[in-house]
User: Fold these one by one.
Assistant:
Number 1:
Amino acid sequence: MRKCVRCGRSGLQKVETEQTLTAAGRTFTKSIEARRCGSCGETYLPALALARLELEAAYWLTRNQPAPSGEAFRFVRKALGLPGNELAHLLGVAPATLCRWEKGKMPVQMLPWAFVALLVSDELAGRRRTRDVLETMRQARPPSKGRVRLPDLVPEPT
Ligand SMILES: [Zn+2]
């Protein structure tokens, strides 16, 4: 962007802006490089900056809250952009269970939470490794016996 959308003048300068996000009883702050119009003062954040801030807060929550509150779980799910029933399906739990977690009526189990943490890491890294594993496991219905021809393995991205 070279011209200010608001006033039409050129002359956008790089500035550091302090972004704040409140989630699950905490306030997260981060310095983000934005552009500011020298004429009218309008500030332009880079595309997806706020979605990324949410994901980074979600990452912090998954790494620092071994037993998340329902509110924290819900925030992280939303940062991942996953509807409740979709995440429940991925984690192999009933949607009603996930609903109880989010309402704080039942503690979130450690392993599902660990998988949520992996989903957040993947999303930040722009990959789908954990999701692919979970989806494949949820769909796989191979015969229980018989011959299996193994495909050439595709190396996983690091
Ligand atoms: Zn302007």
Number 2:
Amino acid sequence: MKGRQHPRGRFVLLGVGMVVLLFLGACAGGAPEAPAQEGAPAQEAQEEAPAGPTVVEVSLTEFAIQMPAELPAGPIRFEVKNDGAFLHNIRIVGQGLDVALSSDLTGGQSGTLEVELPPGTYRVYCPVGSHAQRGMDMTLTVTGG
Ligand SMILES: [Cu+2]
């Protein structure tokens, strides 16, 4: 009944190991790796016209915002489509910026939002009703510079 090992030490070690792995992973992830998105041919446009804005397709539904969570810094044109039935909008807040579509989109409607995003972290959400609480809320990381 004596000398029973406390398992906690091992769990702490495991936790530290995972943090180190995550850190290494974050450092190694420097290459622009396009997040796999269904049917979004966003890469071709970048190669043909490096000077133009990055075009990002955004799909709004009940209740989710579908778009990449990471984008390169610079001019970005968000092509926003309401693929749901409710009214939706998109608001981007961070780094001193606070932009949204000038009017909410009805179901099926599209809108364009052009904005120059410096590197940093932004909150992207739908300002309509309680849609953000219900899931239309995400963090956008803008990289590079
Ligand atoms: Cu909404």
